[in-house]
Records
---
Amino acid sequence: MSEALANLLNETRQFPPPAELAANANVTVDAYAEAAGDRLAFWAEQAGRLAWAKQWDQVLDWSNPPFAKWFVGGRLNVAYNCLDRHVEAGLGDRVAIHWEGEPGDTRTITYADLHRMTCQAANALTELGVTAGDRVAIYLPMVPEAAVAMLACARIGATHSVVFGGFSADALTNRIQDATAKVVITADGGYRRGKPSALKPTVDEAVANCPSVEHVLVVRRTGEEVAWTAKDLWWHQTVEQASTEHAAEPFDAEHPLFILYTSGTTARPKGILHTTGGYLTQVSYTAHAVFDLKPETDVYWCTADIGWVTGHSYIVYGPLANGATQVMYEGTPDTPHKGRFWEIVDKYQVSILYTAPTLIRTMMKWGDDIPAGFDLSSLRLLGSVGEPINPEAWMWYRQHVGGGELPVVDTWWQTETGAIMISPLPGVTETKPGSAMTPLPGIVADVVDDQGQSVPNGGGGYLVLREPWPSMLRTIWGDDNRFVETYWSRFEGMYFAGDGAKKDDDGHIWLLGRVDDVMLVSGHNISTTEVESALVSHPSVAEAAVVGATDPTTGQAIVAFAIPRGTTDTAGEAGEKLIAELRNHVAKTLGPIAKPRQILLVAELPKTRSGKIMRRLLRDVAENRSLGDVTTLQDSSVMELISSGMGGGKSDED
Ligand code: ATP
Ligand code: MG
């Protein structure tokens, strides 16, 4: 971005928190002033939410930036904090996980159960020679054993590296090798789209090239036939036979807890390293504050996969540190029918739902009548994470899932930040559809221009974090230089998030997508997000992706790919008419500068495996280049469809 990012979208709707939620909220407006008054004292107070075996001597050591140490000298055990202390407090019978398999089989796991299972896994791993500091790779479907495996590693001080179960053998190999993992925990497979989907063959292929791996623990989930190697051990023959007694030893607050490789949307995966005390403090606090989590009464459901940071922080560590009851679902949202999510909400009386814009837009595409067919009255709070949420998708979520009343918290954060950073507080903030609003108490975020100067209200630029935060990444595994280079070199003394953002007239923050995706049209920097949001604000559009394609006159020109809503007629002339209408709609909403040169109506968009739109590939299509690497795509056939539509089909150019 050579100049400030244009601020084109003007959204004026605003919604106060429901009175009852506000009156009983876990966190009130005072938290902002308190944290601003003494940020470190504020975080020290939040660290008091945890049980420490030894109190820290210093809240933050920032003497060697950007290498931070939080709660210096403190000692604690993460698994003890997530399990033992709840059981000791008499909550052993509380349900920790209502697990729902895709085929409809279920398991109810209490805190006492989860504690026992974790102790067994900790004993089994110890038996296999895993000690504190060793790395363990976890490649599992969404089964309770995934949480158990992570907690067991934490319990014995082993560093886990969870690899999303949809990744290829190559991706798994790279990650195992980079972390030199000693043990891999996997399963025969899991259920996806109505049938067993094998995992073990991928592990076999990977482990053959990973000499560091001594043992592979295999959970039996599908019961399908699997090949067996000398390194393999069944989970049920080892872990489930191990002693249920295990004393959790405390570790240093800066002991490595996990490595998580970023999804690789943009470049070679980076092993993001998180440590113990600061991480657990911030995930515990944010789950309490942002979700207003009431462990005695709420049923919480985060639909993310455990392979992403959202699954780490808001399925495993945040909710369990709070003693929450949650739902965990194995499969896809349309198996066996498109109402599966809503059926689960109704069945378990889910009160807090945390999901991603991609899912919300998919639900919009499927039609309003689907959620309308279920009783969603147990819900009281909705959350979103992963991408900018278009205002219209936000409104749809509030209207069709939230009955037109529930607060929606749009939470901005990253694998690197470890926990939620910018978000409304549900009992405090008057939310605006599409805005993540303000940094949480204790977080100092800003939007700056090219020179690192804070932009005024109404301006756009780069999102930065001005002060260290407890759950910040500590480094990139094995590559301190890349850590400094990637995040701390763009602006002096600030963390560079890589995302574009703007401040509205009230100073509220709107995320505008990745900096790499910003378009330069006739000298104006235009965010893909704003144009996409304008398209989605048209009643016939469910989802849109926008890219800048090289253009002889304007430098870059806007090319849009739009998915029509369920019942829209796009055949023949109707399609041409809709395209013309959409171009005018964008011009009217954002101004003529943002009018797309070309719009294609498509059935699907290329997405990463975490469900994010992959604009890089669409840029290739828009510039008639041969396709780049499609291996991280959720569904690579999508690209053939889109490219074939590009030549003729329903596009419009004038
Ligand atoms: P990679 O870094 O490998 O390309 P990734 O950035 O998609 O992958 P994550 O760490 O899971 O991996 O995602 C964080 C990014 O997701 C943020 O930097 C931002 O671009 C986007 N994001 C997350 N939450 C929000 C949100 N509420 N609003 C806007 N964007 C969001
Ligand atoms: Mg990223």
Note: The CA atoms of residues 242 and 511 lie 48 Å apart.
---
Amino acid sequence: MKRVALFPGSFDPFTKGHEDIVLRGLKLFDEIIIAVGYNSSKNQRYFKIDFMLEKIRETFVKYPQINVVTYSELTAELARKHQARFLLRGLRNTTDFEYENSIAQVNRFLNEELESVFLITSPPFAAINSSIIREVHRYGGDVSPMLPYQL
Ligand code: ADP
């Protein structure tokens, strides 16, 4: 059976830290579906969803086993729809751990078949944070070293 993992997130924007998690995930999974969500708690995106979709697709153009979709439903439901048995997430620090732990518990409750798998961030990307990138970009700073594509 094909090992399909869903990598869900707001990816506002998708960073080199996210790219690293996906590329390392390829050692574990046959297919990775990157799912760009309309995050309900961050009701307004900074980077348009279609723009981010295009940039992520461009980043992984050489990888037919990586697909990119958008979603505005429960992650557990989306996983069912794509027959994904794994949820891939990245962990940078204890703050991520606290947050990821509660999301993983809820997802397990909603879909028992779904296993959450966590990869610890690679040290060069540990400080990369989408919300800081948005702040820097808003005030005209150069964020290109933190992104795997040109804005
Ligand atoms: P969400 O809004 O769902 O937290 P994000 O787009 O912020 O989505 O992040 C998606 C996933 O990537 C999360 O598991 C997050 O912890 C992880 N992540 C974010 N930044 C990094 C990074 N620099 N290195 C490794 N993982 C990261």
Note: Residues 94-110 form the longest helix (17 residues).
